Amino acid sequence: MASNSCKTVVIGGGQAGLAVSYHLGQHGCEHIILERHQVAERWRSQRWDTLAFQFPNWTLQLPGYVYQGPDPDGFAPRDEVVRFIEDYAAFIRAPLRCGTSVTALGQRPGSARFLVETEDGTIEAANVVVATGPYQCPAIPKALAGAMGSVFQLHSSHYRNPADLPPGAVLIVGSGASGCHIAEDLLPSGRRVYLAAGAHRPVPRRYRGRDFAFWEFALGEFDRTVEHRPPERVSPLLTGVNGGHDLNLRRLAQAGVVLLGRLINGEYDKLCLASDLGATVLRGDEWYTQFTNAVDEHVRQSGLDAPEDEDTQVRLPDPREVSTPILELDLRAAGITSVIWASGFRYDFGWVQVPVFSAVGAGQTSAPIHQRGITQAPGLYFVGLPWLSKRKSSLLAGVGEDAAFIANHIKLRT
Ligand SMILES: Cc1cc2nc3c(=O)[nH]c(=O)nc-3n(C[C@H](O)[C@H](O)[C@H](O)COP(=O)(O)OP(=O)(O)OC[C@H]3O[C@@H](n4cnc5c(N)ncnc54)[C@H](O)[C@@H]3O)c2cc1C
């Protein structure tokens, strides 16, 4: 096995790894990026065909590089996001080694240097930046998955398009961005779609003449620091598909999706649903109104020219199922042949054998302990994780700030 060394190894060739690379390059710090597949791999292989960037193209910006295309207010389709990140890698001449999977990261006893194990050999490094993404592994509740009998099951990150599913109705579990997007994607294929809703935070795509992203910047929400992280950790629900529009449970119900409450348990194809759908929808309305109220207040205080909107989501009718909830669902009787788990992601840092993780209980995922990406092991960093320092830390438009901070810390160590 070959052995070599490099001052700094960055693991992961997504937006976070590349942003760190840009700043390391600016400081003249020697480094390489190890990427197990290709640049922007998640956008290539773990996003469905019709997905579009959820924020306007003017937010496509990484350090030293901003969107230059003809449609700043449009929403880039998945493949354009891939191209943007690819172009960025070329622009910054990123020192990439693609096709190199890191299998373990450790330290020799008594040594502060890191051993980065790959299938091609070991690389010794003084610094390691782990940039392997915020959404690493599908999180699927095992007991519930076991209740689905022989029905075809897949996680949202493996969904591509309706044609990949066996004929028949589809049950989606989860009402965050993935669940609601996929429900909308399935409808034109004529399938009956059931959606078991959990947390749900709809926001208007546009409000008072401007995009949601504009207001989030104006309200300082993207810059909200981790110390002020809200207790309810629900991401806003947005879509950039077909030029961008509102997406929420009320609209999905109007379009024909059968809404259900939270999936509680089940056995032999028979599922039990909570009677919480009405509360979920109403909580969504509250989120929505909280946002519009905050914008109204901002406009009032700043004197910004932003005429009031007449059409608000709250005026949409209640979905029928809210008043007559379905509490039991027989998969066979409903003709459901596929279940899509839009139930989120978990970390998978099992390969990092440096003691910088929080102790966790059974079934929980261990997370790195850090201050703005800096761990207690000198020279070991994480970047791109949700709320690393701010709300925008894991977003394409936001990762650059953390990347600059970490690259600067590395420069000062060398
Ligand atoms: C459905 C969905 C839609 C989204 N839409 C948006 C959006 O519109 N706007 C937005 O800003 N964000 C969006 N996000 C979030 C965004 O995709 C991620 O935050 C982004 O991909 C994070 O970039 P990253 O570089 O931190 O990590 P990733 O993109 O996950 O990159 C990590 C890289 O590390 C590589 N890697 C992992 N393990 C190893 C290893 N052991 N060895 C070597 N390489 C490894 C992976 O192959 C990957 O290329 C969305 C997320 C999802 C799930």
Fill in the keyword field for this structure:
414 residues; alpha/beta; FAD/NAD(P)-binding domain; 2 domains; seven-stranded mixed sheet; five-stranded parallel sheet; 25% helix; binds flavin-adenine dinucleotide
SSE blueprint:
Elements: E1 2-11, H1 15-26, E2 31-35, H2 41-45, E3 61-62, E4 65-66, H3 78-91, E5 96-98, E6 102-107, E7 114-118, E8 121-130, E9 137-138, H4 142-146, E10 152-155, E11 169-173, H5 177-186, E12 193-196, E13 206-207, E14 210-211, H6 212-218, H7 249-254, E15 258-260, E16 263-267, E17 270-273, H8 277-302, H9 320-323, E18 328-330, E19 336-341, E20 345-346, E21 380-382, H10 399-413
Parallel strand pairs: 1-2, 1-8, 2-5, 8-21, 10-19, 11-12, 11-19, 12-15
Antiparallel strand pairs: 3-4, 6-7, 7-8, 9-20, 13-14, 16-17, 17-18
Helix pairs in contact: 1-10
The chain binds flavin-adenine dinucleotide.
